[in-house]
Amino acid sequence: MDVDLQNIVPGCTEVDEADLATDWHLLLAYMKKRHTEKIEGSKSLAQSWRMKDRMKTVSVALVLCLNVGVDPPDVVKTTPCARLECWIDPLSMSPQKALETIGANVQKQYENWQPRARYKQSLDPTVDEVKKLCTSLRRNAKEERVLFHYNGHGVPRPTVNGEIWVFNKNYTQYIPLSIYDLQTWMGSPSIFVYDCSNAGIIVKSFKQFALQREQELEVAAINPNHPLAQMPLPPSMKNCIQLAACEANELLPMNPDLPADLFTSCLTTPIKIALRWFCMQKSATLVPGVTLDLIEKIPGRLNDRRTPLGELNWIFTAITDTIAWNVLPRDLFQKLFRQDLLVASLFRNFLLAERIMRSYNCTPVSSPRLPPTYMHAMWQAWDLAVDICLSQLPTIIEEGTAFRHSPFFAEQLTAFQVWLTMGVENRNPPEQLPIVLQVLLSQVHRLRALDLLGRFLDLGPWAVSLALSVGIFPYVLKLLQSSARELRPLLVFIWAKILAVDSSCQADLVKDNGHKYFLSVLADPYMPAEHRTMTAFILAVIVNSYNIGQEACLQGNLIAICLEQLNDPHPLLRQWVAICLGRIWQNFDAARWCGVRDSAHEKLYSLLTDAVPEVRCSAVFALGTFVGNSAERTDHSTTIDHNVAMMLAQLINDGSPIVRKELVVALSHLVVQYESNFCTVALQFMEEEKNYPLPSPASITEAGCLTPVRDAPSTPRLRSVSSYGNIRAATTARNLNKSLQNLSLSEETGGSITFSPGNLSTSSSASSTLGSPDNDEYILSFETIDKMRRVSSYSSLNSLIGVSFNSVYTQIWRVLLHLAADPFPEVSDLAMKVLNNIAYKATVNARPQRILDTSSLTQSAPASPTNKGTHIHQVGGSPPTPSASSSSLTNGVTKPSVRETSSNRPANVGNIAIQYTPHSHQFSRTRKMFDRGPDQTADDGDDGVTHRNFISATLQTGFCDWSAKYFAQPVMKMPEEHDSESQVRKEREWRFLRNALVRKLSHRIVQKGVTRLDDQILINRNPGVPSVVRFHPYSPYIAVADKDSICFWDWEKAEKLDYFHNGNPRYTRITAMEYLNGHDCSLLLSATDDGAIRVWKNFADLEKNPEMVTAWQGLSDMLPTTRGLTRRVSIYLDRSKQGGAGMVVDWEQETGLLMTSGDVRIIRIWDTDREMKVQDIPTGADSCVTSLSCDSQRSLIAAGLGDGSVRVYDRRMAPSECRVMTYREHNAWVVKAYLQKGQDGNIVSVSVNGDVCFFDPRMPESVKTLQLVKGLTALDIHPRASLFACGSMNQFIAVYNSNGDLISNIKYYDGFMGQRIGAISCLAFHPYLPHLAVGSNDYYMSIYSAEKRVR
pTM for the full model? Predict the structure, then answer.
C-alpha cells in the first residue's frame, strides 16, 4: 500500500503517541501459523549423512623392499643421509635382523590405528610371494577392504610403464612387478600406500590400467563372443584409494634429521614426527629448553586424553578432521573420513604428511585427489597447542609439576559461540563444527558443547543435515546412556531437532534402547513442559508407522505416561501427547486394547473442547486412529467405536477447518471398519430418495401449518443444517440409543416437528413437548408415527443389525453429508471422497445385499418406534425438493471463481452429498454417479482390500507432519515482528502511523461539523447488484458484495482492484461483511444467509490471488421459513413476506469476538482466537435479528429485531438472565440498531418507517425520537459524525444530522446527463471520514463526500 501519508492529512504528520499505542495492543485474528501456512509437512531433504556402505579394512599386506646395506643404482644418496626406517637405524644391526625388526615395527605402528586387522609381512619378496600374499588376503577379506603398503627404498624407482620393483630369489636382480597384475590380485575395494621416490608415477599408471579395465568390461558386456568375454572378468578398480609419498618427478627428502620413511612416519606415528618437525623449525627457539631428546620423554599414552601425549593426539585428530571437513567436498569427506576407521586415520595423517613434506619440496599425492590443505589456518592452532604443551615439558619432567590442560577446546567452543551469536543467516558453516563433535567426548566441556550444538541445530534443517554429515549421530546416541540429569534438556532438544529433519533415526534409537531415555524424561514431573513436549514429539516419531517402535514404547508404558499429561496447562504438550497416543495405536491392536483398559478414549474426550484448535485436532486424530484399527471386532470394541464416533460427531460445527478436516479422516476410519453397514445406510438413503415423488416445495411456517408456496416450483428449498449441541455422551447401548433418538428430533418453536436426514438439531424443549426423552412411550408424537408408517422403507432400515447399531451409522452418514457441504473447500472435498467411496461400493459392488424384508435378517431386532433414517414432515406436507447442488460442483458461475470445480469429481455427486433433505430424487443406481478409486477397475469391485486402501491412502490431512515442522524451524530465534529492524516491523509501524493520521483527520472533521454530503467522488458500475458495501477503515478501498461475489475498488483512483467468487452455494447470498484486523493485516469476513462465514486474505493485492483463510458454519439452524425463497435483495418493506434478515454479524477487534445472528432465535458468540463458540444468548423473541452492535468496554450487545423491538444483552450474565433491557417503541422491522462506544454511549435505532429512537441503556424509555423519511430500504449511521443516511424505495438518498435536519438529498448521478439513481440496495458510511457509499439495483456503486476531492 504505497499511500502517501501527506495526502491523508495534508500538512499534519504529528500524531499523539497514546493514539499510536492503541493499535499495537489490538488483537490480531486469524494470523497464527495454522492460518498463514499450508497444512502439510516439509519436503524431506534427501539425507546423505548415513554411510550406505560402512567398510572395514580387514587385511593389511606390508611389502618392504629394503635390501638393507645395498642402495639401489638409480638414486644417488647424500652423505650423511636419512637412514631411519620405522624409527630404527638399519645399519645398527645385521641386515636380516634389521629387516625383521623394521617389519615388526611397521606392523605395530599400523596396529595402533587398526588393532583387529590381519597383518601379513612380506620382506624383500619375489613376484610370486607378492602374488600369493595378495590373492590370499583378498580371498579372506571377501568384500571388505585390503591395504597394500609398499616401501621401495631398497629398489629402483617405479617405471613409466607402470611397474614397481621386487627381487629374484637370490637377490641378484631387481624384478619388475606390473601394477596391472597387482590390481588383479588385490581386487577392490583396496587402499595402496607407496613410500618410494617418484611414487606419483604409480598413481598415474594405476588410473590408466583402471580405465583400460573399465573398457574391457564394457566390451565384454556388449559382445559376449569377444575373446575378452571368455576370460575371467577383471575386478573394477573404482573403489580403490592410493596414497603416494611424492609426485612423479620428485625424490624423497634425504635430510639426515628426518627418518628415511618420512611418509610412513607421518601416516603411522603422526604426533612423534609432528613434534620433531616442530622442534626443527626456527620458531622452536621461542620455546626454551625443548630438545629432540626431551620430546621422547613426553609423559602419557596416546589413547588417554587426560595425559599430555593423549591430549595432543586428541587435538591433532580434531584439527585434521576440521581441516578436511572445511576443505573437502561433502561426499568425498564422507567417503574418506567417515566410512572406514583406518582410512580416516590415514587420511587425517596424510594432511600432516602434506604439510611436513611440502616443507622439503615434496608433494604427497592421493587418489582421489584432495585440495591443498597445508596452508589452512587451523594449523596455526595446532602449532599453538604444541607450543603450550612443550613449554611445560622441562618443569614437568625435572620438577614434577602438574600438567596444565590445553585451552584449545575451550577457545574453539568460544569461536563457535561467536559464530552463533554474531553471524548473519546466509554465510558459510562454522569451521569448528567437527571440533564440537570431539569435545562431546570430554566431560569437562560436554555441557557447553551440547548447549552450543543445540543452538546450532536450531538454525534450521540445513544445520541439522550439516551436523549429521560431520558425524554427530553416534555421539549423541551414545550420550543417551548417560544418567546425568543436567544433560537431559540439552539431549532432548538435540534429538527433537534431529528427528524433525530425519525421522529414519527412529530405528537406531529403538535398537540402542534410546526410547527408554525419553520415556523416563516424559514421565519426569520436574522436567519443564517445553522439554516434555519435545520428548513427546520424539516418542511420536519413534512410534510413527514403525511397529518395532510401537512395541517397544508400549512395553515402556508410553500410553499411561501420555494419559497422565493430557491435561497439562502447556497446549503444545497436550497436542503432542495426543498425537503420540494416536500414533502408538495406529494399526497396532495391542496398544489399542491397552488404551481401552486405561479408558484412553474417554480421557481424550476432554481435549475435544480444548481452547486451542491444534489440540482439538490432535485429539480427533488420536480418536480416529483409535477406531481405525483393522483387527477383528468384538461387541465390546464395537460399542467403544460407536461411543467415540458419537463424541467426534459433536465437532461437526467446530470453528476451525483443521479440526473438521481431521474429523472427516477420523470418521472415514470408522467407515472403512464398518463398510458393509455404511453401504446399507447409503443404499437406503439413495433408495428413499429415488422412491420419493417430486414434491412441490413446502414452506413450513413457525406456527406449524403449511403456507402457500409463493415462488416458482423450481426453486430449491434448502437443507436445514442443525447444531449438534446437545448430544449426550452416552455410555450404554440403551442410553446411546436414547440420545440418538433425541438427536433425530428437530423442533421449531410452536411444537411441530420437522425431520429430515440432515436435520440433527436437538431441541432444548423436546422433553416438554414430547414428554421425557427417557420415557419410551412419549418419544414420538402421533403425526410422526403416522408419517413413518407411510414411508415404505422404514421397517427395513430399522431392523438392520439391531437398532442402536444402525442408528450410529445413520447419524455418522448424516454428519458426513453435513461436512460435504462445509464452507471450507478442503473439508468438503475430503467428505465427498468418503461419501463417494461408500456410494460407489454400495451401487457398483453388489456385496452389501439390499435388504428387502426383515425375514432375511439373521439378527433382526424389533422395529422400535424411533425415527431413524426416515423422513418425517408435517402431516399433509410432502418432503421438500433437494437443491440442485453446492457451489463447487455444478455452479455455473461465469465469474472468476477462486475455487474451481475439481476435475476428478463427478458433477452429480452433489445430489448425494450436499442435500440433507432426502437425497437427490434423480439418483439412479448406476456406476457413473460415483467417483472411482484411482486403481479401481470395473471387475475388481469385490476386492474389499483394495478399497480399504483407497480410502485410507487418499485421506490424510498432513496435520501431524505440519505440527512436526515446528521442531525443524528455529525456536530460539526472535520472531520477525519483535525485531525492531525487520521489514515486517517497519511495515506495521507505517500502517499504525497511517491509522493514527486518519483518526486525527476524522477528529478534526467531526469537530468542524458536516453541513452537507452530496459531492460524488466516485461512480462505477459493479459486476453484480451491490448487496453489502464496506469501506476499509484506513486504506482507500471499498468492498462491494453482490449475491455471491466480492468486488474491490480503490475509491481514490477509481480503479477496480479485484473481483472474486465468495464460494457460497448459488441459493444463498452474502448478507454481511466485516474487516478483521483493519488496523494491520486486513482480512475480510463475509457471512451468507445459510449461516456460513468465510474469511479472505490477499484481496486487493495485485501480486497474489485472494485466498480463503478459514470458513465455518457460524449459525447452523437458519430457519427454513426465511431461506431459499426468491427475494429482491434490496427491499426491506414487508419483511414477513420476504424471508429474513439473512445473517448479521458484529466484530469486536479488542476481544477477538464475533457476534452472529439473523434468522435464528439466538445470538451466537464466536471466539476467533479459540475458533470455537463461546456463548449462545437466546433472543427471547419470535422474530429474526436484523442488526447487531456491541461494545467491548461494557460487554453489551444491542440487537434490533424484525418485530420492531430493540433488545440489550449483557454477555457476562447467564443465558437466562442476560437480556437486560427490551425497548418496544418501534412497531416495524428495525433496519439498524447502533450502540455508541464508550461508557456513556447511547443506542440509536431506526425502523423501516423512518422513526429514530435514542435509548440510554440504563433507562427503560427512549431519551429522544426523530422522524425521517418513510419506506426505508437501507440505512447507516456514521459512528463518529452523528449522521444518518437513508435510502428509500423512491430512488433517493437523504442524509440527516443528529437533530433530524436534512442536510443533503441526492436523487441524480453526476454526469450521465443527470441520470436518476436506481432503487437503493445498500449504503454504508466510512468508519472515520465523511464518505457515504451507495449501491443501487441498477448495478451502480457511487460514493459521496462532504467536500470535493482535490484531484
Answer: 0.82
